[in-house]
Structure formats: C-alpha cells, structure tokens
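Changelog entry

Holo records now carry the ligand SMILES as an explicit input line rather than a separate metadata file. Below, a converted record for magnesium ion, shown in the new format.
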Amino acid sequence: MPRYIGLISGTSMDGIDAALIEVAGESISLQAYLEVPYPADLREELDRTVTTGTASLPGLAALHVRIGREFSAAALSLLGDAGHSSEDVAAIGSHGQTIWHAPTGRFPCTLQIGDGASIAVHTGLPTVCDFRSADVALGGQGAPLVPLFHEALFGHAGKPTAVVNIGGIANITLLAGDGSGELVAFDTGPGNTLMDCWISQQRGLPFDEAGAWARGGRKHSGLLERLLAEPYFTRMAPKSTGRELFNLAWLRERLATEAWQAPEDVQRTLLELTAVTIAKDIQLHQSGGDAVFVCGGGARNVLLMERLAALLPGRRVRGTDEVGVPAAALEAMAFGWLAHQRMTGQAGNAPSVTGASRPSILGALYLP
Ligand SMILES: Nc1ncnc2c1ncn2[C@@H]1O[C@H](COP(=O)(O)OP(=O)(O)O)[C@@H](O)[C@H]1O
Ligand SMILES: [Mg+2]
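Structure line, unchanged by the conversion:
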C-alpha cells in the first residue's frame, strides 16, 4: 500500500500542515499529521510580500529555498513522529506557499514557492510540486484543487453532501453523493483572512480563538451589506480568489464609509460575512442536501460553526473530525493524494470546477 506525504501552507500563512496518508485502491487513510507554525519573521516577510505585491529578486529567490527547507523539515518531523523512514513513502506532494494568484488577465498566473529540489534532496523522496500551473495554462483557475479529493472521501454518501474548507479563503465542494463525480466547487470568498487581519491589527493576536472576541461584538448590518456588495460574491463560477483581493486595504476602504464604533463589532461582522457567503452559495447550488462537513482552521471557530448551522437550517453542520478525518489535516491529505495522482498518471483537476479545457496530470516532479 503506497504512502504519500502531503504538505501545504495555505493563504493564512500560519504554517505548514503535513499529513502522511496511505492509499489502498479507493480507500485513503490518514497515518499521521503534524502542524509546524512558521517562524514569526518568515510569516511577516510573506505577509509583506503578498499584501504589498513587492519583493526584491534576491529576497524572493532566497525565500523560495527557505520555504523548501521548512517544508523538508516538516516532512522529516512527520516521518520521525510516525516512526517511518523515507523508504516507506512513495512521494511527497508539496503545495508550497502561494504568493500570487491571478488566473485571469493577459498573462494568467499563479505562483507557489517552496523549492521542490530542496525538498527532494533533504528528504530523499520524489517530490511533486507546482500543482496549479498546468490547470492555469489550460485556461483554468488553478483552484480549487481539493474537490476531486473531497469526492474520493465523501462522494459515496448516497445523498447530496457539502464540504466546506475554511482556510484564509473559503471554498465549497458540492457532491451529488451518488459517486457520479458531478461536482460544483469554487472559492466563496474570505474564510479567516479578514478576521485574522483585523484582530492582528487591533489586538496583536494572530487569530480570534474560538471566535470569542467576535462573540462579544454585535453584527453591524450596514457594514455587512457594504461588504456583501463586493462583485466577487455574485460572479459566476469558475472563480477563485486570494489575499490579492481580500486584505486589510479592501476592508479599510469599506470601513471608511460606515459609522462603526467597537472593533469587536467589526470582527463579529467579518465572521458573519464568512458564514453568510458560504451558506448562501450552498443553498443556491445544492437542494436536498443533508450533511455539511467543515474542514480547515475555521472549523475550530466555535461561533462561526454556530452561525453556519443557524444559516443552514435542515442541514447537519459538522467538523470532519466527527466523521474521522481531522479537519486541520484534510487539505494536506489532499496534496498527498494529488501526488498519488501524479505518480500514477491520473488527472488531478476537475475541468468543470476550474474551467480548464481538459483534465490534466498536475505537478512538476523533482527526484532526490
Ligand atoms: N482555535 C481556533 N479558533 C479560531 N480560529 C482558528 C483556530 N485555529 C485556527 N483558526 C483559524 O484557522 C486559520 C488557519 O487555517 P488553515 O486551514 O491552516 O488555513 P490556510 O489553509 O489558509 O493556512 C488561522 O489563521 C485561524 O484564523
Ligand atoms: Mg494553514
């Protein structure tokens, strides 16, 4: 039974999620999981790069290698903790760190850094990375890439099922549930990123633990409406987004025209924005659904989970933990599975989701 390691740091840029999975035919199981926070100076450098859209060339080239080394170290710690050696693993799938995502325009592009050669050399393992470029070259969004994995995990429930991944950005996958592979999936908009930006700016904290600060605030209806007026929310899929759009500058522009008082009211309103946009899109694109499985760091935000449940009456909203898949591990597992797809010559994208002109084997392979 081949084993793979999946590595990712998402748009939150909080650190690396590493998962060791085993793939046996249709069945995929998690063997071990690890979260490795980025050092504070690395997080700051990445944040600066992404939010200002600028970096020096020497700085960027060095960052590419530094992240590759951080990813290798995470993979080696994971193996050590799990009591495995490199020989037990077929390949690594490394998403890397997105620093720019602009899949539309004259030169559609998406850029993930984290040097694959470094990862292959330091771990001794074949390493697949740069998963998104092929889909973008085929006219697709390059995102989301997790839906086929969601289908593999949850697509045989016998009834319509929704999977919600709440990272920095949130994405939903709506599964027909009959194993037909019929998929609707796209980025709904901000997940945690605006909440993280706001609490970081106001209180110097990286995130709002369990949503407790937001709970002390009140939803500001005028502000919520103003935020919801963003055209992205009503654009038709395929669509994907990132911190190039949803960032502190975007929020500040909207705050400037609304009379708000308490910063916790803003936090509460940002949480509502995430919940409302996800719930609306699920209701719009899936009727008769029952289960809603939530993964990503947002599943740990208790108030956000409560609001999703309230906005989706008649559906059971649960963290994927409750069905045996740790919510924080799921996206890393997906990139381990995408490495399996690459190594076995199978497509990793769903053209109906990304808008690519055809299915494609995704990723560039580096050998140790
Ligand atoms: N205990 C928690 N309470 C509230 N929010 C949390 C908690 N743990 C993580 N988060 C949120 O989840 C984010 C990280 O989620 P993750 O799935 O790693 O996102 P990404 O894929 O964008 O890196 C954090 O930045 C934070 O906003
Ligand atoms: Mg993360």
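Spot-checked after migration. The first strand starts at residue 3 and ends at 9. The chain has a mean pLDDT of 96.
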